[in-house]
């Protein structure tokens, strides 16, 4: 395996010069950099990222911890974060916590040992003090861990208002919301609060069903939808807490002989690309995923550079009209 000394010998420069090229340290002419990179390419030299991070006290690596990489929303969001991290000269280290406290703690320890420059958290199972003790730039998604830790989210309350108002304007008079349990302390619970407030303001009957403790258990949502139609067969409008839940609502309607949107209107939340593949295509409240990914990376980079950042970062949503409403 070639070393930095082999590259220096091949390029006809010192090992120190090669190190300066790799770490972009000091003035270096384009001709010199081309010569060094050509030698690296010819020798198939790959720099040791950990060794480089030790030498410059920065790794240019961002850790990302999400609850379930298999879920479409987190898959799309991860893609956007990676793209913006790469544009800013960073690599992404992805961890899949599956809402497991032990896994999340182990991944945090691993990221710290890997000397990442910061961590973006889409998972939150530990006590606040555990996050404070990380002593790293931190950004959370849809989770307000503490007043001094910056978070990024879409305007969940406005999204809930928009979804519920649309159902009411379409003539729905028996509404249901399906989502995660309020005790999970996620900002997404504001979607339900807006749903309930908007229904009351319009004098429309409403009910809600929530999972017990795992908002990502899709089988639980299937059971909730079966329960909903069994206990309230007159339901004619459903606001689902995500597009995936909306897809299960569409399936439940089909299996119970209900036509969408003729008998039941459905709207989801997220605006994932897959929603257009369902029949009928799912209406949704679209989160600005690209902007959310860009902003999360920007907040990490600014903290790394010692710049103060705002703790609250709420981005607007918009209606993505499909055929289920």
Short note summarizing the structure:
Keywords: DNA-binding, Repressor, Transcription, Transcription regulation. 44% of the residues lie in helices and 18% in strands. It is of the alpha/beta class and 325 residues long.
Mind explaining what this structure looks like?
The chain has 325 residues and is an alpha/beta fold. It folds into three domains: 4-47, 434 Repressor (Amino-terminal Domain) (Orthogonal Bundle), CATH 1.10.260.40; 61-154 and 289-316, Response regulator (Rossmann fold, 3-Layer(aba) Sandwich), CATH 3.40.50.2300; 156-287, 3-Layer(aba) Sandwich (Rossmann fold), CATH 3.40.50. The protein is 44% helix and 18% strand. The chain has twelve helices and twelve strands. The strands form two sheets. A six-stranded parallel sheet has the order 2-1-3-4-5-11, with helices on both faces. A six-stranded mixed sheet has the order 7-6-8-9-10-12, with helices on both faces. Strand 6, helix 9 and strand 7 form a beta-alpha-beta unit. Helix 1 (4-11) packs across helix 3 (30-43) and helix 8 (156-169) runs parallel beside helix 9.
């Amino acid at each position: 395996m070639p070393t930095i000394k082999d590259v220096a010998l091949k390029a006809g420069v010192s090992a120190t010069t090669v190190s300066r090229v790799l770490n972009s340290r000091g003035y270096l002419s384009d001709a010199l950099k081309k010569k060094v990179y050509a030698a690296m390419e010819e020798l198939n030299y790959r720099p040791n990222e950990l060794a480089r991070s030790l030498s410059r006290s920065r790794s240019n690596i961002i850790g990302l911890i999400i609850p379930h990489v298999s879920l479409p929303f987190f898959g799309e969001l991860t893609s956007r974060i990676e793209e913006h991290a790469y544009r800013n000269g960073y690599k992404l280290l992805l961890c899949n916590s599956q809402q497991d406290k032990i896994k999340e703690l182990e991944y945090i320890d691993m990221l710290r040992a890997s000397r990442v420059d910061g961590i973006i958290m889409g998972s939150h199972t530990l006590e606040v003090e555990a996050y404070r003790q990380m002593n790293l730039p931190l950004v959370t998604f849809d989770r307000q861990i503490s007043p001094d830790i910056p978070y990024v989210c879409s305007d969940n309350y406005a999204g809930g208002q928009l979804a519920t108002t649309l159902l009411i304007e379409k003539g729905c008079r028996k509404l249901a919301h399906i989502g995660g349990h309020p005790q999970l302390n996620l900002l997404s619970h504001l979607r339900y609060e807006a749903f309930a407030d908007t229904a009351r303001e319009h004098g429309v009957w409403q009910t809600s069903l929530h999972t017990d403790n795992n908002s990502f258990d899709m089988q639980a949502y299937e059971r909730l939808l079966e329960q909903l139609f069994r206990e309230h067969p007159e339901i004619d409008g459903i606001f689902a807490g995500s597009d995936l839940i909306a897809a299960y609502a569409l399936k439940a309607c089909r299996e119970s002989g209900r036509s969408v949107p003729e008998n039941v209107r459905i709207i989801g939340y997220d605006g994932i690309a897959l929603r257009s593949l369902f029949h009928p295509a799912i209406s949704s409240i679209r989160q600005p995923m690209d902007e959310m990914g860009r902003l999360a990376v920007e907040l990490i980079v600014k903290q790394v550079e010692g710049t103060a950042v705002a703790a609250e970062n709420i981005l607007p949503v918009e209606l993505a009209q499909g055929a289920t409403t």
